[in-house]
Amino acid sequence: MAKFNRKPLSTILLLIILITAGQSCNSHDNRFILPAHPHDAKTVVPLLIYYVSQTDVRPAITVYINGIPVEVLFDTGSWGLRVLKGALKGGTFPTIGVRVSNSYSGGTSLYGQVARGYVSMSNSHKGATLNFMLIDGADSGNGKFSTGDNAVINNPLLEHFNGIIGVGMRYSDTSRGVANPLPQLPGNAQFIVHFPHYGEPEGTLVLNPGREDLRGFSFLKLKANSDILPNGLQSWPENLLTGTVSIDGQPYTKNTLLDTGNPLNFYYKDGTSNKEPVDINSVVRFSLGDPVVADTTITVKQQRAGLDLLVSSNKSSYGPRNVFGTMFFFDFDVFYDQHNGVIGIRKK
Fold first, then answer.
1. Residue 141, Cβ neighbours under 10 Å: how many?
2. CA distance from start to end of the chain
3. What distance in Å separates the CA atoms of residue 1 and residue 53, rounded to the nearest whole number?
4. Which domain holds residue 103?
5. CB-based burial of residue 67 (10 Å sphere; 0-12 exposed, 13-18 middle, 19+ buried)?
6. To pair with 9 at 20 to 30 A between CA atoms, which of 34, 287, 289, 316?
7. pLDDT class for 271, splitting at 50, 70, 90?
8. Total of domains in the chain
9. pTM of the predicted structure, to 2 decimals
10. Residue 122: which CATH number?
11. 36 has a pLDDT exceeding 70
12. Within a domain: residue 1?
């Protein structure tokens, strides 16, 4: 009888653990390890979709600041909660004596004081006292103006919202603590953005998702930024994803931003072209990640925002990058994990 070399059971188990750990680093592995620290119960918040016009689709969410509800633009392309001062009448919000500003790629700049308030995403959801920006001025490209006591302003970015909540994973110390509020709330610093199918009025924002909510996702690991969020979490450059837009077979690969605040899709063609719509009947393919974790192909029929409207951009508008706007979110669910620096993508 042949003799077998019998390894101790503990050695075999160690080998299995090491192999499994190595597999979990694969960006295509749909398993995901949640943070080990305790987290609050999952919370699902309505995400409203406004179909404004042929060229404009806007997601909005209600945020509570010291119990006062404000409806704000939901923007994965920026960071920080910024609310018009006039929308918070009757509330008391201590300021820290610092003024800040923030510019957006569409040409709007917002100005105001850094204030402190108790921020939550619903009356039943636990919140936290955070820095946010009290907007008292804006510039739409025609000069700075005071927003006064107005709860809404006629502005290309805010439309008729009370402000904007940027939930991107980046951060800069120049924002003086005005960062994405979601990972600063009690929980696991994770959330899922779930748009409905195009034409439907309501999606969801899933806070503190559980393991069962992550089935079907493929994950991309980000490299860390140097700036740290006010609660000590790392910031991550989620605007440097690898994305390709192919138009009738011609690929344009650039750093890519996933941007719910942008009703259009932009691709960087060259340094001079600007906002030229892709022609009707063009076949357009979008792919994200290296290796690819998201891939979809459309034929341009209506040139409608959120559905099939794609335009070119140059350095002066959105820089040398591609922007996957609302259309991408109508096709894919997107998972954000500020704790581990991970973005997940799942085809609807």
1. 9
2. 57
3. 80
4. 44-212
5. exposed
6. 34
7. confident
8. 2
9. 0.89
10. 2.40.70.10
11. no
12. no
